[in-house]
Amino acid sequence: MSHMSLRTCNRGNMHNLNFRIANQIEDDDATEWLTPFIPLAGATFAYGEGGVGKTSFFNLVAAQVTAGKAGGVYDGQGKGVLILNKETRMGTMRAKLEASGADTRRVTLLGPEEEVNVCRGLESQLGRYVDEHDISLVIFDPITAYIGNASNNKHEDIKNAVIKLNLFAMKHNAAVVMISHFNRSQHSIADAYIGSVAWVNQSRQAIGFVRDKERDLHLIQVTKSNEGETGGVYAYDMQVAENTVPGQQAIAIAGNLRAAPEENPDDVLARQYSLNKAMDPETLGDNAHEVYSALIEENGIALRSRIIDKLGGGNSPANVRRLTRARQQLEKLGLARSARLKEPAARTIWYLAERYHSADEAREAIQKTLTANNG
Q: Which Pfam families does the annotation name (predicted)?
């Protein structure tokens, strides 16, 4: 083995190992959960699009911890919470926590100006404080701002970072939450996170957040679990806080967490990804909006002449199979009569035909999108 390999592998103290005979070890207690999917004594990786409601949801969890109501773990005995946030001013953080019902006497905040490196100084920077203030929930938002010079995409870097967070959580019997974001080409919630797969593989739990914008429904799916159920889906509501001061920006708070086994976040992602891509001028040309308008004006019947008049363009042999399949799907939904559609138009309506159950549903969604964009 080379000297380089020895230095890479020698990451821990190899002295004073605690050897224990297996039959002399007591059984561990059952895993305790702050929510049905956030365990104590472990690191949870939580990811979703910006603005989907991740921070608001964890403000709710923080409020429950401070009130001793988190999953029934503390039986009315409030515990401390530590939140490290690089994206929100501390005054705003406090206002949101108070609106969520948190006992802010039990919440400690580290704002954007504070530097913490989980790869190097986690225990020395946070360990004593966590113990002295009876903290049971530590939140890093976003986790990528607290990994120092480590690369978000380098497997070994992220593996070591998450291992340290798990060890920290076990040592202090606290839930550690690592908040992160979606990548830009998400198709499935299970692999929609940014960075190395080690974020998920090394975490005890991984959960993805999705918002169904059409129904204003906020969903969470457990995408990895060491001890619980993988694939479980939950929903929660967002509303404006009652104590929002008139004239100031409304504060959104989360509530009513519930199981939602009938929901499929992948379907929501696929539909919204398809719609977003179809609305992208760089993907479909500058006249994509006019195609949608033609759909609406024609009561869902997209005639060949209307589409070709709007988009133009020549036929390409490479597009024949795509156009044929698109035409067949459109005819089934009543969105087009026999027509050999041009590529941009076919692709636009193809996404709609694939992702919506009916022409009415497609038109309604498109109308909402057009209205929002024009507004």
A: AAA_25
Residue ranges of the alpha helices (H) in 173-287? 198-201, 265-278, 281-284
Confirm if 184 and 192 have CB atoms less than 8 A apart: no
CATH class of 30-263: alpha beta
Q: Put residue 97 in one of left, alpha, beta given phi > 0 → left and psi -120 to 50 → alpha.
A: alpha
Residue corresponding to tokens 């797969």: 197
SS3 content of the chain, % helix, strand, coil (to 5): 40, 20, 40
- Find the largest Cα–Cα distance for the chain: 81
135-141 and 175-181 beta bridge pairing: parallel
Query: Residue 219 in contact with residue 46, Cβ under 8 Å?
Result: no
Domain map of the chain by residue range?
Answer: 30-263, 279-374
* Low-confidence residues of the chain: pLDDT under 50: 1-12, 278-289, 292, 296-323, 333, 335-346
The rounded distance, in Å, linking the Cα atoms of 134 and 103 is 14
| H helical segments located in the chain | 3-9, 54-66, 90-99, 122, 128-132, 155-172, 198-201, 265-278, 281-284, 288-297, 304-311, 320-333, 343-355, 359-374
Q: Hey, is 180 helix, strand or coil?
A: strand
Residues 305, 276, 141, CA angle at the centre, nearest 5°? 175
Residue 224: strand, helix, or coil: strand
Question: Which residue in 119, 131, 112 sits closest to 174, CA to CA?
Answer: 131
Global pTM? 0.70
Specify the pLDDT at position 192: 86
Which DSSP symbol is given to 24? Answer: G
Is residue 126 classed as helix, strand or coil in its secondary structure?
helix
CA nearest 193: which of 47, 55, 57?
47
